[in-house]
Specification:
Length: about 350
C-alpha cells in the first residue's frame, strides 16, 4: 500500500550472529544505528557445532574449480576447525562494551549455561533441542522417526562444505531414506522453484538476473556459472520445506517414473542432536519444550537450594554484623531460587 511508504518504520532490535571477536568489533564499527553501539542490542556467538549454516574455519575458502579447499578437509570430507576458530569470551565481553551476548552451538546443557552466566554472558541460544520438541514445526512423523533412532543409538551429523549454494558449510543429519544419502539425492531432478537462496548477477544485456548453483546445471551455465560450482550442491529450500511437512511437487519426473517427483526431507541439526535422548521416556518418541527448559534450569535450583542450607541458621548468629551479612546472602539466594521458579513456571 502506497501510504505505508510515508510511515517511518521503527528499527527492530539487532542481535548479529558472529563467530569471532574481530567480527563483533567490525559490526560495532560499521553499523548505522543510533547510540554508542549503533543500534546493536547484543550478539549471538555461534560455534561451528551449531545446526544449519556455520561460519567457515578461519582461512577456509571453497574453491569449486581448483578444489584447493580439499586440503583443509578431514577424512570425512568436513572442514577442519582449530584453535583460531575458538572465541575468547573474556576478550569478547570487553570488545562489545558491555552488550549482552548469548552462546550457541552445543550449549544446551546446564553446566554450559552456568559457564556462560559465570563469565558474564546473558544466556544461551538453543536450537536442536527445541527443533525436535512437540511444539516445533518439523513434520511429526519425521520427528518421531529421528527420535526413535536417537533413543536406539547415536545419529551422525555431517558438516557439508559444498551442499549450500551460499558457500557456507551446512550441517546435515545423516538419515537413511532422506536426501542426506548421496545416491538418493542424485536421483532427484534438479529444479529451482522456490529460489530463497538465489543470488543476483549481471546478464550480458546489463540487467539483473538471479541464479543458484543448486538449480539445473544447464540453467546455471547459461547464466555464466561453471559446471564445477554445481557439484555437490543441494536444494536446501525444497529440503527444508519438506521437513516442515510442505513438500513441493516438482515439475519434473524421476527417470523411469510416471508421476512427478515429490520433494523429500533434508534435515539439519547441531552436533548435539543425540542430547534429545535425555528428554524422552523409554519407548516414548516425543517430549515437550518445557522438558528442555526444566533440564536446563533445574540444575540451578538444585544448587541454589543446596547453598541456601548453609544460611538456614543466619538469624541465630550472635554478632549483629555477621548476622546481617548472612541474612543478606540468604535473601540473595532465595531471590535466585524465586527467579528460577518463575522461569520454570512454578506457582
Amino acid at each position: 500500500m502506497p501510504e505505508l511508504a510515508n510511515e517511518e518504520l521503527k528499527r527492530p532490535n539487532f542481535f548479529p550472529i558472529v563467530s569471532s571477536v574481530l567480527l563483533a568489533q567490525a559490526m560495532l564499527k560499521r553499523a548505522s544505528g543510533a547510540g554508542p553501539t549503533k543500534g546493536i542490542q547484543g550478539f549471538v556467538i555461534e560455534m561451528p557445532t551449531a545446526g544449519g549454516h556455520n561460519a567457515p574455519p578461519r582461512g577456509f575458502k571453497y574453491d569449486a574449480e581448483m578444489k584447493s579447499h580439499t586440503l583443509a578437509l578431514n577424512e570425512r570430507g568436513e572442514p577442519v576447525y582449530g584453535p583460531k576458530d575458538e572465541v575468547d569470551l573474556v576478550k569478547f565481553k570487553t570488545a562489545v562494551k558491555g552488550l549482552p551476548f548469548f552462546m550457541a552451538g552445543y550449549y544446551a546443557r546446564p553446566e554450559k549455561l552456568q559457564e556462560v552466566l559465570a563469565i558474564g554472558g546473558q544466556g544461551i541460544q538453543v536450537g536442536t533441542s527445541f527443533a525436535f520438541s512437540k511444539e516445533s514445526g518439523l513434520e511429526p512423523n519425521v520427528k518421531a522417526e529421528v527420535l526413535r533412532q536417537i533413543q536406539n543409538g547415536d545419529l551422525s551429523i555431517f558438516t557439508d562444505p559444498v551442499a549450500s549454494p551460499t558457500g557456507f558449510p551446512f550441517k546435515v543429519l545423516e538419515l537413511e531414506d532422506s536426501l542426506s544419502v548421496k545416491g538418493k539425492y542424485e536421483e532427484r531432478p534438479r529444479v529451482c522453484n522456490l529460489g530463497y537462496l538465489r543470488t543476483p548477477y549481471t546478464t550480458p544485456q546489463g540487467k539483473v538476473g538471479y541464479r543458484c548453483a543448486s538449480e539445473p546445471v544447464d540453467d546455471w551455465v547459461k547464466k555464466g556459472g561453471t559446471v564445477e560450482a554445481t557439484v555437490g550442491r543441494k536444494c536446501l529450500c525444497n529440503g527444508l520445506m519438506a521437513n516442515a511437512g510442505m513438500p513441493q511437487v516438482s515439475p519434473f519426473k524421476v527417470a523411469g517414473q510416471d508421476s512427478r517427483y515429490v520433494e523429500e526431507i533434508l534435515i539439519t541439526a547441531g552436533d548435539d542432536v543425540n542430547q534429545c535422548r535425555k528428554y524422552m521416556l523409554e519407548g516414548v518418541y516425543e517430549y515437550d519444550a518445557k522438558t528442555v527448559i526444566d533440564y536446563l534450569l533445574g540444575r540451578f535450583k538444585e544448587e541454589y537450594t543446596s547453598e541456601s542450607q548453609l544460611y538456614k541458621d543466619a538469624e541465630a548468629a550472635e554478632d549483629p554484623e555477621v548476622r546481617a551479612q548472612l541474612m543478606a546472602k540468604a535473601k540473595e539466594i532465595q531471590a535466585k531460587i524465586s527467579e528460577v521458579d518463575s522461569q520454570l513456571g512454578v506457582k
